[in-house]
Amino acid sequence: KILVIGANGQIGTELVTALRAVHGAGQVIASDINNPAYAIRNSGPFEFVNVLDKDNLHHIFHKHQPTQVYLLAAILSAVGEQKPKMAWDLNMTGLIHVLDLAVEFNVAKVFWPSSIAVFGPHSPQYNTPQYCVMDPNTVYGFSKLAGERWCEYYNTKYGLDVRSLRYPGLIGWRANPGGGTTDYAVHIFHEALKHGKYESFLSADTALPMMYMDDAIRATLTLMDAPAEKLSIRSSYNLAGISFTPKELAALIKDRIPNFEISYADSDPRQAIADSWPKSIDDSQATIDWGWKIEYDLPKMVDDMLANLKKIL
Ligand code: VAH
């Protein structure tokens, strides 16, 4: 049995869908603190879970005896700056509860997402390496950095097979992002199709590492299927996709929706967060260890997003 915690989120929804396709719906338990999202409501078993309630989590682990656990529940960068203590508590206590229970119930593999948000103003900005100065200045960023340290610690100390990816900004059509700084790159598609215009909360030339969700899910399943002995990183792997600016993305959307107009907000708190992150990432270690290779470049992503959103909007 596979337990997905935070199944309603942007990544969780996609992972439940992908894992159910591979393992069969009944083998994948979706769980979240809120009611199941539409996309996963009738496609398999669901449990209510609160990662801050260890007794509740213990009950779920005992009931389902999961062999794999994916912990996606988290508060992201922008919301985390509005609720710093809650973000630290949920991101950290939730992870430690799950790591403890994974050891107690002898879970074979655990996945936990990190982020390029673990890098900060003094990290190299281009082709940011796996190891470098990391001075994240958002609660979300340093909760992910601390979480990476906990994951490596549980692997070293208890032999727990926990695996992680430093996701860039993720763009997908099946589920909306939940309060991050890269959310503009999803919202822009919905607004382009519905209203023909979009005001970006990041400035025109703000380059960020991004990835199409299909690539992110494939990377996750490839990492989880890799032989343990091939993994040289037990904190979290750098993962790169495509880097682009709002201006570059808007130009490709305009090629396909000629009347689309983009404008730019002038003072959004998310700009400072984006400015503290790298512009591109070196993920060569993932390629060496488990054969990582991107499939969606920017034009292919734009075409796939518009084609799928047109069907549901
Ligand atoms: C966020 N989407 O914006 C997340 C992600 C790299 C960005 O961590 O907070």
Automatic annotation (TrEMBL):
Stretches assigned to the NAD-dependent epimerase/dehydratase domain: 2-238
Any Pfam family hit: Epimerase
InterPro entries to which the protein is assigned, alphabetical: Epimerase_deHydtase, NAD(P)-bd_dom_sf, NAD(P)_epim/dehydratase
Top-level taxon of origin: Bacteria
PANTHER family associated with the record: L-THREONINE 3-DEHYDROGENASE, L-THREONINE 3-DEHYDROGENASE, MITOCHONDRIAL
Family, as annotated: Belongs to the NAD(P)-dependent epimerase/dehydratase family.
Protein name: NAD-dependent epimerase/dehydratase family protein
Source species of the chain: Mucilaginibacter boryungensis
